[in-house]
Amino acid sequence: MDYINLFLFKRMLNNTYRKIKVEKVSRYLYTTDELLQRYKLVPKKNLNLLKLKLESEEYNNTSMTQIIDMFHKLVISITTAAIAVTITISVANLSFLKDNKILQEDQTSWIENVQINLLNFSNGMGFYIKFLLVCSFVFVVFSLHSQIQHTKNNLKKKHLRFIEEALKEDD
């Protein structure tokens, strides 16, 4: 979804000057010179409208970014704490079962207790591993979203700078 928005944003910017052809472009700073030349040939009204549109949009601090960031931080900290508690309890329980001479006298109940404890431990670890995979997926999505927002913001700054320069030279 974000990639589609980025594509549409780039397309909106390029549609402003796409049909304008520029002849004499510096070979050293080709893209910079070409973009500036094209913006100079765009009608002043269109430049002002595009500048207004770009200045009115904000790409840095979206609510989705804040929600994903909060979710990610909360989930990672809770998951890490839960894994640590689970491992600590399981190790303590296994140590207790190993050293308990009364339970070891009845071999079948002792083996059952150890098996139940190990099964609970492996089930818990399996759950937390899946949970960490989900957290990793959320982190990847958040990273991609942040990267796209950063790209949009850089494009916005770049084009605003060229528009201001074209308007300044136009006056």
Task: Summarize this structure briefly.
This protein has about 170 residues and is mostly helical. Helices cover about 85% and strands about 0% of the residues.
Describe this structure in words.
The structure is a single chain. The chain has helices at residues 2-17, 30-41, 44-56, 63-99, 101-105, 107-170. The radius of gyration is 30 Å and the shape is rod-shaped. It has two domains: 2-61 and 156-170, no CATH class; 64-146. Helix 1 (2-17) runs parallel beside helix 6 (107-170), helix 2 packs across helix 6 and helix 4 packs antiparallel against helix 6 (107-170). By secondary structure, the protein is mostly helical.
| Helical percentage | over 70%
Name the poorly predicted regions. Answer: none
Rg, alpha carbons: 30 Å
Q: Order of SSEs, N→C?
A: HHHHHH
Q: Can you summarize the main beta sheet?
A: none
The number of domains: 2
> What class do helices, strands and sheet pairing give?
mainly alpha
Described by the principal axes of the CA atoms, the overall outline is: rod-shaped
Strand content: under 5%
The count of β-strands is: 0
Distance from first to last alpha carbon: 40 Å
Overall pLDDT level:
79
Tell me the number of helical segments per DSSP (H or I, 4 or more residues long).
6
